[in-house]
Design goal:
It is a single chain. The protein has 315 residues and is α/β, with parallel strands linked by helices. It folds into two domains: 231 residues, Aminopeptidase, CATH 3.40.630.10; 73 residues, OB fold (Dihydrolipoamide Acetyltransferase, E2P) (Beta Barrel). The protein contains six helices and 17 strands. Strands 1, 2, 3, 4, 5, 6, 7, 8, 9, 10, 12, 15 and 17 form a 13-stranded mixed beta sheet that branches. The chain has a four-stranded antiparallel beta sheet with strand order 14-13-11-16, with no helix packed on it. Helix 1 crosses helix 6. The radius of gyration is 21 Å and the shape is globular. The N and C termini lie far apart (59 Å). The model has no long low-confidence stretch (mean pLDDT 94).
């Protein structure tokens, strides 16, 4: 059943509506579990659109397997999606910085408050993201250290190769996940791919993970495919590789591949001089789970993130 969560009047007789699609069994039972799938909080992140479509399609195709409530929110920032903007136009404000919001404040805060009211109380919420235009990400679940104990069992079922536990000092206050977790609603953040595009392979991995979580909760009667066991990474397991100068970055390795310490993973080009300004060298062995997508870089720009490994190859 499609319902409107929030309605806001806009100039020129227009209206912004945030909607959800609720799927639940025909025969309602007491104490039904509820999972929420939310995406589109950034208007340029599109992978979640395909994920929402496929989850709804699969549930409808095998509706008899549904034993609980699945709420799907494809577009938390419908204006941003329509305008191909990350932020909420015309305010150019990141919606993922204003939670838990307020019923008494401006449009974005009001929308955030209404979303919080609707999402609170779910057994699990999965907040789906698709990185940004600058970085391509391997599918991963991100949780912060304060919530790791209660979220990790669900994160491990998400069929991603990586679960990244962030130190609490880096957690983004004002985000939907932060606000919901502090209200007692278990919320996972999923990142994959790159903005303004849909990587179906990555999305399909996440879809299987969502069905696995649903099965774990008793919402879905059929077990998903055999899941990948993720690497659980902490702060000390992740190495950031930043640029030393301005220029054009061209990678020379594949995203999500293994790299060796001392290997060249890309070059920063000085186009006016026709020279290589920086050879970007891997500082350790590991998996390249983040790689620069947007070529223009400045000094300090993030070029890659490497998940350190201690594998020894026997030749």
């Amino acid at each position: 059943m499609i319902e409107t969560v929030c309605t806001i009047e806009l100039p020129v007789d227009e209206v912004m509506r945030i909607k959800r699609n609720r799927l639940e069994p025909d025969e309602k039972k007491e104490n039904q579990k509820r999972i929420c799938i939310v995406t589109g909080i950034h208007g340029d992140e599109l992978g979640g659109q395909y994920i929402c479509y496929e989850i709804i399609r699969r549930i409808k195709a095998e509706f008899h397997l549904l034993n609980g409530i699945v709420d799907v929110y494809p577009g938390l920032n419908p204006l941003g999606i329509d305008a191909v903007k990350r932020e909420v136009p015309p305010f150019e404000l990141d919606l993922n910085t204003v939670f838990p919001g307020s019923n008494e404040d401006a449009m974005t805060e009001y929308a955030a408050a209404k979303l919080m009211e609707d999402l609170e109380g779910a057994d699990v919420c999965i907040d789906v993201h698709s990185s940004n235009i600058f970085l391509r990400e391997l599918p991963q679940v991100r949780i912060h250290s304060e919530e790791a104990e209660q979220l990790l069992p669900f994160a491990k079922k998400m069929n991603t190769p990586l679960v990244w536990i962030h130190p609490s000092s880096t957690v983004k206050k004002g985000s939907l996940a932060y606000a919901l977790n502090h209200k007692g609603t278990k919320t996972l953040v999923v990142e994959s791919g790159v903005a303004l595009s849909i990587n179906q392979q990555f999305c399909n991995q996440i879809i299987e993970g969502i069905f696995s979580v649903m099965h774990h909760l008793g919402i879905w009667a059929k077990e998903s495919i055999e899941r990948k066991e993720p690497v659980v990474a902490k702060e000390e397991d992740v190495v950031f590789v930043n640029g030393d100068c301005c220029g054009i970055f061209l990678p020379c390795v594949e995203h999500a591949g293994k790299v060796k310490k001392g290997q060249c993973i890309g070059r920063v080009l000085d186009t006016i001089m026709g020279a290589v300004a920086q050879e970007v060298i891997a500082p350790c062995d590991g998996i390249l789970f983040t790689l620069r997508e947007y070529p223009v870089v400045n000094e300090g720009s993030l070029l890659a993130r490497i998940l350190k490994t201690e594998e020894q190859e026997n030749e």
